[in-house]
Amino acid sequence: MTSNPLALITSYLRDDGPIVVENPANGEVVGRIASHDADQVSAIIDKADTARIAWAKLTAKERAKLMRAWHDLVMANADDLARIMTLESGKPLAESKGEVTYGAGYIEWFAEEGKRAYGETIPGFSPKSRIVTILQPVGTCAAITPWNFPLAMITRKVAPALAAGCSMVVKPAEATPLTALALEALAQQAGIPEDLFRIVPTKTSSAVGNLFCSHPKVRKLSFTGSTKVGQILMAQAAQQITRLSLELGGNAPFIVFDDADLDAAVEGVIASKYRNAGQTCVCANRLLVQDSIHDAFVEKLKARIGTLKMGDGMAEGVNLGPLIDAKEAARVADVVKETIGAGGKLVVGGEEANGAFYAPTVITGVTQDMEIAREEIFGPVAPVIRFTDEAEAIRIANDTIYGLAAYFYSRDIGRIWRVMEGLEYGMVAINEGILSSEVAPFGGVKQSGMGREGSRHGLSEYMELKYGLMGGIEG
């Protein structure tokens, strides 16, 4: 760890840079950087497309060696990366450190998984021929990443792309580009070719997003963000039939059945709902609690929330930081007011926003027709919905256009299988509050997107399947 974490990105800082990065905890300027316009990004894409040719010719083991060096540098600079992340995103330092390790895990995983991009032989239709398949890199790729996980959202897209033999150009969120630039700097230190992986911060996000979809050399776009923006990108991508991976909005149910371990379920809520101040795409958005244990569960949750310490993410002991900015905190406050006005009962929290800070909040008496139960809150607010039986819980949980993540707590093995199979979500966590891992396929169904990140399936997203028919075999 250095005395100045920004030393990692000194070469990117500009006194007159148009992109101004502020600490959401106090509004102080963390740094200023340049903005790339569409023409500059187009030129970078062209260079990336050239660089990928030599990269793809390396053996998987040669690529893995460079990626492993990148992973090792990320871990060696973990403290500085975490401090940069906290300064620009506001999340508690402990969470930032956890994200560095989590994000680096994708680099390590795909460095190894790239060695296992197997083809196959297929029984043929003629004794004179043989059928084989091989996997080849998609080509030049682009990615658009959000501000809530400024490191991990990049590594879980870039790592499989590089492992597959592709190049990658990434547009990070305007609010949190510094962590992304630090990743680029470390990749170059590791020996990964400069033009192969580029970060392009910009103030013209719409123009660059459209460019990613329309540039003839971009074969694949990966996007993490809102369903609304995903719909726009999907329409734009039709211009070139650009291959897409979309990780979009969520409305995760967190179901607590009457046979659950309530203390464990409360801890699961704390991990899932209040991590990063509720600003995660897989965040528990609705708490569904069975009638018979509703009141006991709410009291336990209220008591546990009382132990959370809100403040500047750099301060000792803080486990709940600010939202990304004051505008978002004010929006969350309005959501709470609207819910109370519609009949919700405030259990804890619910104060006015204080700059970018909003206190952890619980509201009971929520019904499925309320706005808070239908749209992502993206803040530290937990609406609680009562249900009577298993069938009703599944019905309420599935009553949404989204299908990213779901959680439930139960100790009945039969119920565990029934509910897991009945929930219309790409990911389901049982008796756990956090489900993301580089070894597991991350992604959703319905309007939560398409494609998977992580696991062996994440590598397939950056590869094309080629069928080869070999004739003239029989003499």
TrEMBL record:
<feature type="domain" description="Aldehyde dehydrogenase">
    <location>
        <begin position="18"/>
        <end position="466"/>
    </location>
</feature>
<dbReference type="Pfam" id="PF00171">
    <property type="entry name" value="Aldedh"/>
</dbReference>
<protein>
    <submittedName>
        <fullName>Succinate-semialdehyde dehydrogenase/glutarate-semialdehyde dehydrogenase</fullName>
        <ecNumber>1.2.1.16</ecNumber>
        <ecNumber>1.2.1.20</ecNumber>
        <ecNumber>1.2.1.79</ecNumber>
    </submittedName>
</protein>
<dbReference type="InterPro" id="IPR015590">
    <property type="entry name" value="Aldehyde_DH_dom"/>
</dbReference>
<dbReference type="InterPro" id="IPR010102">
    <property type="entry name" value="Succ_semiAld_DH"/>
</dbReference>
<dbReference type="GO" id="GO:0009450">
    <property type="term" value="P:gamma-aminobutyric acid catabolic process"/>
</dbReference>
<dbReference type="InterPro" id="IPR016160">
    <property type="entry name" value="Ald_DH_CS_CYS"/>
</dbReference>
<dbReference type="InterPro" id="IPR029510">
    <property type="entry name" value="Ald_DH_CS_GLU"/>
</dbReference>
<comment type="similarity">
    <text>Belongs to the aldehyde dehydrogenase family.</text>
</comment>
<dbReference type="GO" id="GO:0004777">
    <property type="term" value="F:succinate-semialdehyde dehydrogenase (NAD+) activity"/>
</dbReference>
<dbReference type="GO" id="GO:0036243">
    <property type="term" value="F:succinate-semialdehyde dehydrogenase (NADP+) activity"/>
</dbReference>
<feature type="active site">
    <location>
        <position position="247"/>
    </location>
</feature>
<dbReference type="InterPro" id="IPR016162">
    <property type="entry name" value="Ald_DH_N"/>
</dbReference>
<dbReference type="GO" id="GO:0102810">
    <property type="term" value="F:glutarate-semialdehyde dehydrogenase (NADP+) activity"/>
</dbReference>
<keyword id="KW-0560">Oxidoreductase</keyword>
<dbReference type="InterPro" id="IPR016163">
    <property type="entry name" value="Ald_DH_C"/>
</dbReference>
<dbReference type="InterPro" id="IPR016161">
    <property type="entry name" value="Ald_DH/histidinol_DH"/>
</dbReference>
<dbReference type="InterPro" id="IPR050740">
    <property type="entry name" value="Aldehyde_DH_Superfamily"/>
</dbReference>
